[in-house]
Amino acid sequence: MKRLITIITFLFCVSLYSQEEVENDCPFNNDYKGLTTEWLVKLGKTDFVWNEKSNQAEIYSGQDTIFVSKGGCVHFGILIELRLGNDKHTINDSEYWLKKALVLATEFEFNHYKKMITENNLKRVETNKNVVWFDIEDDNFDDNLFYNGVEINLEKKTKVISLSKYYN
Question: Quick one: pLDDT at residue 54?
Answer without folding.
Answer: 94
